[in-house]
């Protein structure tokens, strides 16, 4: 896995570099200290995964994540920050981040988060996940206005969405439902369009809020 590290604190970058260089399946191909530099670097290097800080001079990590997701959606961005509040968690997920972890995370857990992102899976710090679900349940983070029912989706779309809520990647869903991975991607795109949501994390949380699979 080719990684780009983004943080404005040299000591944080150094610590990440020292640990991640020890992982046999990971290679650090670039480092940046702000969002503008990160965007330029990612466009040039096209890494597999980006570890992104939020609070940085110039362009912040959320805006950088949004621009990376728009131009290179195949690049997986994991937010790694000290902040876990409603002003950061939901905006980061909406910007396209596939993971949200705090800098207090254990090193081995961070490595597994990176591997999960590479496989197309989403991993959130428990505090971030709890806040995200609470925002949707209370309506403070949900701009979806249409009162859809689960029957708005086809039977196969419901099956795919149910698997998404368990954190499975497209490849794992394809194996579980015995269909092609390309077919899963088509169903995911259709689900997001019908729910008027931008990514699979939002779809999973929306389904949880509605209690569709409980």
From TrEMBL:
<dbReference type="InterPro" id="IPR039420">
    <property type="entry name" value="WalR-like"/>
</dbReference>
<dbReference type="InterPro" id="IPR001789">
    <property type="entry name" value="Sig_transdc_resp-reg_receiver"/>
</dbReference>
<dbReference type="GO" id="GO:0000160">
    <property type="term" value="P:phosphorelay signal transduction system"/>
</dbReference>
<feature type="modified residue" description="4-aspartylphosphate">
    <location>
        <position position="53"/>
    </location>
</feature>
<dbReference type="Pfam" id="PF00072">
    <property type="entry name" value="Response_reg"/>
</dbReference>
<dbReference type="InterPro" id="IPR000792">
    <property type="entry name" value="Tscrpt_reg_LuxR_C"/>
</dbReference>
<dbReference type="InterPro" id="IPR011006">
    <property type="entry name" value="CheY-like_superfamily"/>
</dbReference>
<dbReference type="InterPro" id="IPR016032">
    <property type="entry name" value="Sig_transdc_resp-reg_C-effctor"/>
</dbReference>
<dbReference type="InterPro" id="IPR058245">
    <property type="entry name" value="NreC/VraR/RcsB-like_REC"/>
</dbReference>
<dbReference type="Pfam" id="PF00196">
    <property type="entry name" value="GerE"/>
</dbReference>
<feature type="domain" description="Response regulatory">
    <location>
        <begin position="2"/>
        <end position="118"/>
    </location>
</feature>
<keyword id="KW-0805">Transcription regulation</keyword>
<keyword id="KW-0804">Transcription</keyword>
<keyword id="KW-0238">DNA-binding</keyword>
<dbReference type="GO" id="GO:0003677">
    <property type="term" value="F:DNA binding"/>
</dbReference>
<protein>
    <submittedName>
        <fullName>Two component transcriptional regulator, LuxR family</fullName>
    </submittedName>
</protein>
<keyword id="KW-0597">Phosphoprotein</keyword>
<dbReference type="GO" id="GO:0006355">
    <property type="term" value="P:regulation of DNA-templated transcription"/>
</dbReference>
<feature type="domain" description="HTH luxR-type">
    <location>
        <begin position="146"/>
        <end position="211"/>
    </location>
</feature>
